[in-house]
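Write out the 3D structure for:
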Amino acid sequence: MISPRYATTVAILLAFALVPTVIHSYRGIRVDDGLEASAISQTLIGMSSSPSGRRADWVLRNFATGDWTERTYKRDRTEVSLFVARSYDPKRLYHHPELAILRGFQTTPAGVARAEARPDAPLHVLETARGERRGIAVYALLYDGAFIDNPLLFQLRTSVELLAGGRKPLTLFMATALEGSRDDLDNSPATRLLLAAIADFERQAPGTPGR
């Protein structure tokens, strides 16, 4: 039995405890920023593209989203695959996305690096191989206008924020090419296309010059 003198304090604590439950279980609040993966241009860095043919139900099952695009960009003999998805279930996107997207490739983690053109955007690098061909895949994670370097720290930070706020979408950008190397990251086709896709995506934001 609770003493009457503690009743007010207990009631306040219980009210705070109910906040995340109401937000996420009952109301399911989501913060829509109005941006869309599919708005990324079909032509980037002089490369035209075509849809990859990946199925929407596969993306929904793996990443819990219908907001995505995947295109193959080509010019001469260079070919780069670009996958972009946005999800309100961030872990689906930041927890080893290559295991799903790059199925059929051999992949080896090659750390996190920063390109000179976008030092604010940490790039998660993977060395890739298919048969005798080798190259790299790079991906970046964008959440609430900021890029994510360490997904674990991101998870800890957002778990606190979500106690009193709605869910925001995490955006995954991944580019893959069977050419280029970790040692020449800035000049690799995958990196150049990825950074162009990010810049094009960011132009959707209200107040961005050129919109």
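Confidence is low (pLDDT under 50) at residues 10-27.
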